[in-house]
Structure formats: C-alpha cells, structure tokens
Amino acid sequence: MSAAASAAPVRSSARTLAPARTVATRSLVYAGVCVLVVFFALPLLWLVLTPFSPAPSYRATLSGFTLDNMAKLFDNPQTWPSIRNSLVLAIGSSVLVIALAALAAYALSRVRIPGRDQLLYALLLLSSIVTGTAAMVPIFLMLFQIGLIDRQVGVVLVLSGGLLPAAVFMLKDFVDSIPRSYEESARVFGASPSQILRHIVLPVIRPGMATVGVWALVQVWGNFLVPYVLLSDPAKQPAAVVMYTFYDAGGQPNFALISTFALVYSVPVVVLYLVVNRRYGFAFQGGIKG
Amino acid sequence: MPSTSPEAEVAPVAAAPVPARPGPAAPDGDVVGLGRGRAMVFVAPALVLVGVFLVFPAVWTIYLGLLDYSLTGSAAKAPTFVGLGNYVTALGDPAFTRSLYLTLLYVGFSAVVGQNVLGFLLAWFFRTTHAVVRNVLNVLVLLAWILPGSVVAFLWQALLDRRDGTLNAILGTTDYAWAIDHPMAVIIVFNIWRGTAFSMLLYAAAINTVPRSHLEVARMAGARPWQQLRDVVLPTVKRHVLTNTLLITLWTFNDFSPYLLTGGGPDNQSEILPVYIYKEAIIGGHLGYGSAISLLLLVANLVIAVAYIRLLRTRSHDEATA
Fold first, then answer.
1. What is the rounded CA–CA span in Å between residue B137 and residue B253?
2. Within this chain, do residues B189 and B268 fall inside the same structural domain, yes or no?
3. CA dist., res. B230 & res. B237, Å (int)
4. Closest by alpha carbon to A212, among A99, A125, A59, A114?
5. Does B71 reside within a domain?
6. What is the CA B174 to chain-centroid distance, rounded?
7. Are residues B120 and B55 part of one domain?
C-alpha cells in the first residue's frame, strides 16, 4: 500500500509529451496487436474453414461451402465409438470424482479431523507434482500387473485419482463458504444426520459439485497421454487418441474426416467453458427465508 | 487403511439412528453431528483412490528406478537390483543430457520468457484498449488454451505442413519444412500460443488489484504509461510474477503435447524429457531406466511446488500481520 504512494514521483519533464511521439507509439502498439491477432487466429482458421471445404487439405482456404465432410463423418464406423469411449471415460471419472470429493470435502469442512490442514496441503502438493508424465511408468506397470491395462476402468481410476486432490480442495472451499445455519436449523427441528445430508446439504452444495464435475469432465475429455499409454485396443480408445489414426494407406491424413471430427470433438469443450464462465460469478446467494 | 468398498463404507450413514435430541452445535462446526468416526469414513474412499493411483506410483518410482527392469527379455522375468546404476547410465548417456538441455530451453523460452512476457503485455494492453479489440484478442487467446490438445496439435501440423501448409502459402515459401528444420523453435512458439492465456488471466486479475486512484495520481503527476507500469504496477504485481512463473514452469516441464507436433524428432532434436521417458520406458520397454528419469522429473516438480506453496503461505502470513 505504502509502495504505491511513494511510487508516483513527480516527473515534471513528462508533461512535455510530444504528440508525434504518442502517435508513433500508438501505431506501434496497434501494429503489435494486429500481429498478435494474426498469430493467435491463424492456426484456428483451419478448424473453422476445413470442415466445410469442398476440397479439404492442410491449407485453410475459403473455397466454397459443403456439408459432405459431415456426411462422411457420420458414415465412418470408427468415429462414433471413439466419441462414446470419450464420454464413458469423461462421465465415469467425473461422477467418481464428484461423489468421492463431495463426501471428503464435506467431512473435512465441518469436522475437525486431526491433521486435517496437513492432509489438505499434502493433497495439494501431490496433485501438482505427480503428473501423468512423471508417473506414466509406474502407473503403466502397476495397471499391467493388476490386469487393468487396456481397460477403460483403469483409465477412469487413474484419472480420478489424479483429479481428486484438486477437486476436494475446490469443493471444501465451496462448503466452507456455506453458512452453517441451514444444518443448524434442520437439527433443531430434529432431523437426523442422514436426513440433513440428503435433504439440506446435498441440494446446497450441488452448484459446487456441478462446477467440479464440469471441470473434471473437460480435463478427461481432452486428456491424450493417459489413454494413449494405457489403452492399446483401438475399439476402446477415446477421440483424443483415435484422431491420430485417420490416415490412409499412403500416410496422408483423411482431411474430410479429421477436420469434421476435430470440430465435433472440440465443440463440447468450448460450450462447457462458456457455461462455466458465465456461471463463474455465481456466489452462494439467498438465505433462509421466512 | 481398510480396503472395504466405498459403498460399504457409506452405508452406515444412511442407517444411522436418529439422535434422541438435537444437542447444541459442536464448537468445531460439526453441526450435523457427524462425529469424527463417520467423518473419517467419508474421507476414506477419496484417500484410498488417491493413495493407490497417485501416491503409490510416485513412491514406487523410487524403488523401480533402482532396478534393471524391462518389459521384454531376461530383465523382464527377474529384475535385478542395480542401485544407482540407472542414474549413472543416464548421466553418461548423451541422449539424456541433450534431452535435459532441450527441456530447459523449452521451459525457459516458451514459459518463463514467452508466456510470461506475452501474457503480461496482453493484460497490460487490455487495461486501456477498446472493448472490441480486447474481446476479439481475448477469445482467440482463450480458444488456444481450452481446445483439446490433440486438436491444437493437428491445427499446427496443418499450419506448418511442408507442401500445403497455410504458413507457407501466406509467406510464399514453398517446400519449407518448419517442423523439420526448426523443431525446437516450432514447439516453443507452439507452447507460447497454447499457454499464454493463463498468464494473461492471472496478470489481468493482478493488475486489477492495483487501486485506480494510485494510477490516477501517477498520471496527474505526469508519469508516462511505462513509468506508471514500473513505479505503480510492478511493485504490486511482483509476487504474482513469481507465482505465475512457478506454475507455468511446472506445467511446461511436464508437457507432453510437443510429441504430437514433432514426435521428438527429427533425429531426437526436440526430444524433451517427457517424450524421452515415453520413448525409453513405454516404447523401448526399459521400465527401470524410465523410472529413474521419472524420479528426476518428480523431484524437480516437488522443488517447484514446495517453493510455490511456501510463497502462498508467506503471502497469507504477510496479509495476516499487515
């Protein structure tokens, strides 16, 4: 606070700004902005244009509009199973993470378990250091030895284990912010713990569970490395991995298929992001009425 | 930890007897009357899953790294204990030392410098710019960040393709193979494109915490934008720079996506550590050796994460005593 007050020394010379100089810096700034817009937009062009191009190739061009590529996507026997696999992995992990994180977060928030704060810090630390990259070897070997390699349940368990610490952390924050008066008044009226949990706590923390669930869903939906390492059967692989198998015998990508597939695979992520972002300003509002 | 199934552990709660009378709320906040025992039962399933699929693999890496253990061949049947042999092999292997060097280049240029500086510039620029320009750029930067990794890697392949790539078409260069001639530059630029959004969001939030009145005072005193930046904004944002740098360093260090762009090639010229581990352990089947390298990665992650958490703790301590 005090830094800012002392950090505004009077610079009398600065008042003599040459207008030419401002114009120069302004045009420089806008040139830079144009470069940045091109830099960030250029790779994205392909995703927008190619799915509807009559002659899809590596080049992103605006040469007509067709829905033929979409028809090819619908006819391909490989695409939908992979989307289904992505859904199975994402929804499976998301549900598992929500259920276990909600139970743990509620208990950690409301009951003083010995060593709670240390446990939470340890979890936070772990989730950031044990990444898919750093742990791929032991995880691969462990699943290999317990017979979960090349099985989707193995991928769900591994991904859930990785997401849980952060999920517990986020949900505990959320539960902490909820006033206890809801539970207190239910208790005063003689509700049992199980009744309070089901009828009071669950509805109240549902928005937090939804946020964490969407977060987990997006994380798993986009994950490439874990299913790539753990699943070898193409029939079980999710969209993230299968996308790299749409090549013809000559090694040329099947552009019609890859472009439409990439678009269909990306849209849910963007939509979910927008939904969460719009809701992000959500704060627990209301209160006990009456 | 008991290995009962989560269902079995949760079941007693549903059948819990109704308490005879509602006692006063416990002072520690246990208003529902869960009790310590049931609270532990609530926490147990999450801990079991994290323990088995996160903690155990990390700890097991230490042991595996001391073995000569392969997926195939004689070392598959009977792994032998080689002590620090894998680490000695790694240090003597030019492929490993080069991979380490490439990783430092990758993290340094793409994250510590690239994402950091570009993210800050964007956040600083967004402060005063026209809303339309800001929104357009904001959406583009965010899209690069939220799209699935497989998709963006293919987008960059299409952009940089030797014959039909959009970049060659725009620049008028024909038959220029960017990913083969400059693999490191390509993955560095790619990662700047991919990850700048996080730094941008963090710095935008940090700059927002600078009181407007301070900037106003500085402006009245005749400070030019870069002087305002240096004297007013940077002192406030300084700690966020450290936070941001630690986080993006950690993530970039563990980033596997360059594999989808260059496959570590050509000739291992862009083989950063994650790709090196994958090729050695999963493709080559050298699990012991791969574990030893993984442990180095884990330790590096640990150092960064501990620094980060200490930073957060001292900050909350400062705020408490301020």
1. 27
2. yes
3. 10
4. A99
5. no
6. 36
7. no
Provide the pLDDT for residue A58.
85
Establish if B76 belongs to a structural domain.
no
- pTM score of the predicted model: 0.84
Domain range for B239 is 85-321
Choose among B252, B253, B140, B204: nearest CA to A42.
Answer: B140
Domains of chain A: 21-66 (no CATH), 75-279 (1.10.3720.10)
Chain A residues with CB under 8 Å of B50 CB are: 123, 126, 161, 164-165
Q: What tokens were used for A39?
A: 């830099």
- CB of B34 less than 8 A from some CB of A: yes
Is the Cβ pair B50, A111 closer than 8 Å?
no
- Compute φ and ψ for B175, nearest 5 degrees: 60, 35
B114 and B16 within one domain: no
CB burial of A231-263 (b: ≥16 within 10 Å; e: otherwise) equals beeeebbbbbbbbbebeeeeeebbbbbbbbbbb
Q: Helix, strand or coil for residue A247?
A: strand
Nearest chain B Cα distance for residue A260, angstroms: 11
How many CA atoms lie within 13 Å of B16's alpha carbon, on the beta-carbon side? 21
CB B249 within 8 Å of CB B111: yes
pLDDT in tens, B167-179: 988 888 888 888 8
Residue A226 has pLDDT above 80, yes or no: yes
E strand intervals along chain A: none
Q: How far is A229 from chain B (nearest CA, A)?
A: 8
Cα separation, B244 vs B203, in Å, equals: 8
**Distance (Å, whole) CA B199 – CA B249:** 11
Q: Are residues B226 and B188 in the same domain?
A: yes
Asked if B25's CB is within 8 angstroms of A124's CB, the reply is: no
pLDDT at A19: 66
**Per-residue pLDDT, B114:** 96
Question: Best mutation site among A119, A130, A180, A264 for testing chain B: the one with the most B CBs within 10 Å?
Answer: A130
Task: Output the average pLDDT for chain A.
Answer: 84
Q: Give the number of domains in chain B.
A: 2
Chain B residues whose beta carbon lies within 8 Å of the beta carbon of residue A223: 149
Q: Which amino acid is at B14?
A: A
Q: For the domain that residue B179 is a member of, what is the CATH number?
A: 1.10.3720.10
Half-sphere exposure of B300 (CA within 13 A, CB side): 22
Question: Rounded CA gap, B307 and B313, in Å?
Answer: 10
- The answer to whether residues B214 and B283 belong to one domain is yes
Sign of torsion, CA A43 A73 A257 B262? Answer: positive
